[in-house]
Design a protein that fits this description.
Radius of gyration: 18 Å
Helix content: over 70%
Order of helices and strands: HHHHHHHHHH
Number of helices: 10
Number of strands: 0
């Protein structure tokens, strides 16, 4: 069945560290589990958005207009580099007051935007999900696939967030929050530069 073959590729790809993973870890370890879960939800909604686009023809568009693929990769890579540089040059934040409510709304938007500007996510869905879609595929199967993308993504990144925001982890890294920010910045810059360097790689038809 198409669903099984698609998710046999998607699940391992989901678990590989990338911009989404770094975003969730950074939110959880610097702002707590609630912010981490909000970022995980934002990432999951972004992946669901791309799943929906791929099932309605994203692959055909990117294959026909390779310049659009180049543009998306350059823009997404540049955003990740920009985000990484901001984390590298920012001053350490003061320790938050206990009980202060984290800004879940901005954390959710942060996760969504990072995923939206992640060209690797676009290419993954365009090359895997779109090839599974056909005119004969029932609408309910497409909806099921999109729902499974969101559910599996949220389950994985929620687990990552809860582990990283657990008291033992937070206690160990509480005094090194700025180092976590710097490490996340380095990761974003490195991933962004790699995406930009691969910008001319074509999307397979």
């Amino acid at each position: 069945m198409a669903v099984g073959s698609v998710f046999a590729v998607f699940i391992p790809a989901l678990m590989l560290p990338g911009p989404d993973f770094v975003a969730v870890v950074r939110s959880a370890m610097t702002r707590g589990s609630r912010a981490g879960l909000a970022t995980a939800l934002g990432v999951s909604l972004g992946l669901g958005f791309y799943a929906a686009l791929s099932l309605i023809g994203l692959s055909a568009i990117l294959t026909q207009y390779q310049w659009l693929t180049w543009f998306v990769r350059i823009l997404g890579g540049a955003y990740l580099v920009f985000l990484g540089l901001r984390l590298l040059i920012k001053r350490p934040d003061p320790v938050e007051i206990a009980g202060e409510a984290p800004r879940e709304r901005s954390a959710l938007l942060f996760g969504f935007v990072v995923t939206l500007t992640n060209p690797k996510a676009i290419v993954l869905f365009a090359s895997v999900f779109a090839t599974a879609a056909s005119g004969a595929m029932p609408l309910w199967v497409m909806v099921l696939m999109i729902g499974l993308v969101i559910a599996s993504s949220f389950a994985w990144y929620s687990a990552v967030s809860l582990v990283m925001a657990s008291p033992p982890i937070m206690g160990r890294f509480r005094d090194t929050r700025h180092r976590i920010e710097r490490l996340a910045g380095v990761c974003f810059v490195a991933i962004g530069l790699k995406i930009m360097s691969d910008a001319r790689s074509p999307v397979a038809a």
